[in-house]
């Protein structure tokens, strides 16, 4: 086991340290609350020589990801961070990085999307690009931020896909807690360099990312090349392959550093539970306390936390929730016009199970709205009351909603 230092740091500091340990070569920096301290810290280290990397200060978030795309295309290890409307401004390039199969790593410090303007936490930003072909990992504490960002490079370079490491703005980004920081030499041993998918050869110049037609076509040398649909099928295959790679990387991390590396999901008091909470991110920590309170009150409750949200770990979810009566999904985002995105995915994953549990959705924490353990306990009690009354389908329960009474 490698020597580590234990320090008390914010989530943003943990992210910056992970990036430095990973030996990134190019950082694209543009500020937006609450991720700004990540790139600010990296900028200081580049200026002081502590981080031997090229830091590119750009004029927008769109340009930040464009710089990462270009650098990753020629084989550099890259990083950027963003939040909320910054991620929305990147949207075109989010799809490009995914479709180009580039191992870009980005921290998404989750924040509410405008309008109306709000700089506080929910997960609407990262959920809005969940279909763009990136691996998405969600963190519940600052240790997971550091560990997941280090692992993100191993995952990205093995499956040749971009990885978005998501953590809750202010709740984690600006909150200090103890974090074990591994030795730089150990991280370097954990992250060997891998050749990039696109090969750039100055002696044989060629177009990269050119227009791709619907059907396979021969290139200038007469070799038959994939059409657009074949490339998309391979992209999906790579994401499905990440369901195996993510746990493998977590196990290797655990063996190297002597602590749990993290897989696709995590659980708390789930064995023998009648009702299971499901969530991603720091609210999972609140839910573990809520489950313990419910247990003390005679309700067998547990928690299933989603660490990997894309690719969605459907099999792991089915296995973990087998035999449960009721699942209460806690979403910090909405697919407006329907329900919470995690709720939809959990419900779909359970279809076809021998005896699937009822799945009730809840929405909480939008725009930084406070949610405490007692409110989560009460939401579970309402759900159980409905379930025991024979309800199997219902609208999402908005926790701590304070609508004005009609005049």
Q: Could you spell the SSE succession in H and E letters?
A: EHEHEHEHHEHEHEEHEEHEEHEEHEHEHE
Helix content: 25-40%
Largest sheet properties: 7 strands, mixed
Gyration radius, in Å: 22 Å
Structural domain tally: 2
Secondary-structure content class: alpha/beta
| Strand arrangement in the largest pleated sheet | 3-2-4-5-7-6-14
Output the CATH homologous superfamily of the largest domain: Thiamin diphosphate (ThDP)-binding fold, Pyr/PP domains
Query: CATH class of the largest domain, please?
Result: Alpha Beta
| Mean pLDDT over all positions | 95
Q: Assign an overall shape.
A: globular
- The counted number of beta strands is 17
Number of helices: 13
- Distance separating the two termini: 65 Å
Q: Which fold name fills CATH's third level, the topology of the largest domain?
A: Rossmann fold
Stretches where pLDDT is under 50 for at least 5 consecutive residues are: none
| CATH 2nd-level architecture of the largest domain | 3-Layer(aba) Sandwich
Topology, please?
Layout: E1 4-10, H1 11-21, E2 26-29, H2 36-48, E3 54-57, H3 61-73, E4 78-82, H4 84-89, H5 91-99, E5 105-110, H6 124-127, E6 135-138, H7 142-159, E7 163-168, E8 176-182, H8 184-190, E9 217-218, E10 224-225, H9 228-257, E11 265-268, E12 275-279, H10 283-296, E13 301-306, E14 308-310, H11 314-321, E15 326-331, H12 341-350, E16 358-363, H13 373-388, E17 397-398
Parallel strand pairs: 2-3, 2-4, 4-5, 5-7, 6-7, 12-13, 12-15, 15-16, 16-17
Antiparallel strand pairs: 1-8, 6-14, 9-10, 11-13
